[in-house]
Specification:
Largest sheet: 8 strands, antiparallel
Order of helices and strands: HHEEEEHEEEEEEEEH
Number of strands: 12
Structural class: alpha+beta
Oligomer: single chain
Shape: elongated
Length: 253
C-alpha cells in the first residue's frame, strides 16, 4: 500500500506530454541562443583582429602606389644609360600626339648630298654614307641648307636649321633633359600598340642643338630590347656630340 502511494505521487509530479514538449523546446531554444551568442562573439573578436590588418594593408598599398608612381614603377618605366664621359641619360616614357608641319613660307629646292659634302657635315664620323646619301632641302634664294634626313646604323638622323621643326612627330609625356659636354639633350621613348603577332615597338629618341642646327636621333625596335636600344642610341648621340657635328652652314645649294 505504501509503495503504491509513492508510485502514485511520483507519477503526479512527472510532466504530462504537452509540458514535456514545452520543456524540450525551451531547452533547445536556450542551446541555440547560446550558440548564436558564442558565434557572434567569435565573429566580433575575429573582426577586431582583421580590421586593423586590413587597414594596414590598404595603407601599405596606397603608399606603395604613390611611391611607385613617383618612381615610374606603374607602367612608365625609365631607361637609364651611363655614358663613357660619366654623364647619365634618362629616357622617360611619352606618346606621339599629332604631327608638326614641314610647310615653308618661301621657295625651296631639293637635292642629294655628295659623299664629300656629307663628310664636311660629319668630318670625324667614318662610314657615315654606308646607308646611302641623304636627300636635303635648301632655301631657294639663299641656297642655305634647311633640312636633311639619313639613316646611320639603323638610327634615323634628322637635322634642321634652328627654328624649323626637326621631325613631324610630336611627343608628349615624360621627356628628360640631360647634359653632355655642356649641351642640353632631350631624351625619351614611346611604345606602339601590339601588331598582329603581339609584338610592340619601342621608339627611342634624343634631340639637341648645336652649330645653328637641331639634331634629332631616333631608333626603333622590339620593346623587349629597350635597354639595348637606349644604349645604342646614346652611343651614337655621344659620338655626334664629340665630333662637334654637324656644320650645317658649310653646305649650300
Amino acid at each position: 500500500m505504501k509503495n503504491e502511494m509513492i508510485i502514485t505521487s511520483w507519477d503526479r509530479i512527472l510532466p504530462d506530454k504537452a509540458a514535456d514538449e514545452r520543456m524540450r523546446a525551451k531547452i533547445l531554444e536556450y542551446q541555440r541562443s547560446r550558440q548564436s551568442k558564442d558565434q557572434a562573439t567569435n565573429r566580433k573578436t575575429t573582426m577586431m583582429k582583421v580590421i586593423p590588418i586590413a587597414a594596414c594593408m590598404i595603407l601599405f598599398i596606397a603608399v606603395g602606389t604613390f611611391i611607385g608612381a613617383r618612381n615610374h614603377w606603374l607602367g612608365a618605366k625609365q631607361y637609364i644609360v651611363s655614358l663613357d664621359h660619366g654623364e647619365t641619360l634618362v629616357y622617360g616614357k611619352g606618346s606621339p600626339k599629332g604631327a608638326a608641319s614641314y610647310a615653308y613660307e618661301y621657295d625651296v629646292k631639293d637635292r642629294v648630298l655628295s659623299a664629300e659634302e656629307l663628310h664636311m657635315l660629319f668630318p670625324t664620323m667614318a662610314n657615315i654614307e654606308e646607308n646611302g646619301l641623304p636627300y636635303c632641302t635648301f632655301k631657294a634664294d639663299t641656297g642655305e641648307l634647311l633640312r636633311l634626313e639619313m639613316i646611320v646604323d639603323d638610327i634615323h638622323v634628322h637635322i634642321a636649321r634652328s627654328g624649323l621643326p626637326v621631325t613631324d612627330t610630336m611627343i608628349v609625356g615624360e621627356e628628360s633633359v640631360g647634359d653632355i659636354e655642356g649641351i642640353a639633350v632631350k631624351t625619351g621613348y614611346f611604345v606602339t600598340d601590339a601588331n598582329s603577332k603581339g609584338i610592340r615597338t619601342a621608339i627611342f629618341f634624343a634631340e639637341y642643338e648645336t652649330n645653328d642646327a637641331t639634331i634629332y636621333l631616333e631608333l626603333a625596335g622590339n620593346e623587349k630590347d629597350s635597354q639595348q636600344l637606349s644604349e645604342k642610341l646614346s652611343a651614337m648621340l655621344l659620338e655626334m656630340i664629340d665630333s662637334k657635328a654637324p656644320y650645317i652652314s658649310a653646305i649650300n645649294f
